[in-house]
Design goal:
The chain is an alpha/beta fold and about 300 residues long. It has 2 domains: about 180 residues, FAD/NAD(P)-binding domain (3-Layer(bba) Sandwich); about 110 residues, 3-Layer(bba) Sandwich (FAD/NAD(P)-binding domain), CATH 3.50.50.60. Helix content is about 25%, strand content about 25%. InterPro entries: FAD/NAD-bd_sf, FAD/NAD-binding_dom, Ferredoxin-NADP_redctase_2.
Length: about 300
């Protein structure tokens, strides 16, 4: 089948783009294999009218709204290959059925690569998180730990001081803070530990203690761990789009990539900050850009 636009990814960016394009009476193939990155999260925050919504409920409401528009079709398959054609793009899926589209929107989001620390996965999404804007309020005034191998841990420490004054900063065996930064943190009674974390100790997802490489332990009830962010999109080789300094797909203000007909939105484009409201807004802008381009072509 042929569509005006193929959207790869059913997160907030892809869903909001499908909504806008559906309302513009554009035919849309929305490819969504139901593997959202935030599935482990118990609640999502910072999105007005949906603060505290579970990821599953967010998707349920979104699909209820999006699929009201008859020109939008959800296709529950993983996209395995995309190639350019004379009329746009050919999209191949794991189901083997080919699809064609005049325009392409990549909204596949990110994947997280966490340090290999025992106990992290058991606590992640319940008492360990990665975004203070998403979950800082829920951990306010608690004894927290921040684990990061990046120099950005200094900014994270200052940021989290708003939510809790009881902070321990751990660089997990990496020397990423200079002497002045360490001194400034210590002046605020923020402890800095540069040795590696041996394990997180908790029960039913609730952190209780953190053990370090030398065997010492500290009591903590929550914290933040910084992952390495990698785009899920794996189509750069076949499509040839440029990437930005964070590894996302480089786009203009309307989500248009450096390849004609290819757009990107959400975390797949700007990488950070990774929040629902940013991604949804990016999807809306990209959809408007796609519709404008289709309109101009039809009147050429």
């Amino acid at each position: 089948m042929s569509y005006d636009c193929a959207i790869i990814g059913g997160g907030p960016a892809g869903l909001n783009a499908a909504l806008v394009l559906g309302r513009a009476r554009r035919s849309v193939a929305l490819f969504d294999n139901s593997q959202p990155r935030n599935a482990v999260t118990h609640a999502s925050h910072g999105f007005i009218t949906r603060d505290g919504v579970t990821p599953a409920e967010f998707r349920r409401i979104a699909y209820e709204e999006v699929l009201r528009y008859p020109s939008v079709e959800r296709l529950p398959w993983e996209v395995t290959e995309i190639r350019r054609t004379d009329n746009g793009f050919a999209v191949a899926t794991a189901a083997g059925k080919p699809f064609e589209a005049r325009k392409l929107l990549i909204a596949t989001g990110l994947r997280e690569v966490f340090p290999d620390i025992p106990g992290l996965r058991e606590c992640y999404g319940t008492s360990l998180f990665n975004c203070p804007y998403c979950d800082g309020w829920e951990l306010r005034d608690q004894p927290l730990i921040v684990v990061s191998e990046s120099s950005g841990v200094f900014h994270m420490a200052k940021l989290l001081y708003t939510w809790s004054k009881d902070l321990v900063i751990c660089t997990n065996g990496h020397a990423v803070l200079d002497a002045d930064q360490i001194q400034l943190l210590k002046s605020r009674n923020i402890e800095v530990v540069e040795q590696a974390v041996a394990k997180f100790i908790g029960h039913e997802g609730k952190l209780r203690q953190v053990e370090f490489a030398d065997g010492t332990r500290i009591e903590r009830t929550g914290g933040f761990v910084t992952p390495e962010w990698k785009p899920k999109a794996a189509f750069q080789e076949s499509l040839g789009y440029e990437v930005n300094e964070l590894g996302g797909i480089a786009t203009n203000e309307w989500g248009k990539s450096t390849v004609p007909g290819v757009y990107a939105a959400g975390d797949a484009a700007y990488v950070m900050p990774s929040q629902l409201i940013y991604a949804a807004a990016g999807g809306s802008k990209a959809a408007i850009g796609i519709n404008m381009e289709l309109t101009e072509e039809e009147f050429a």
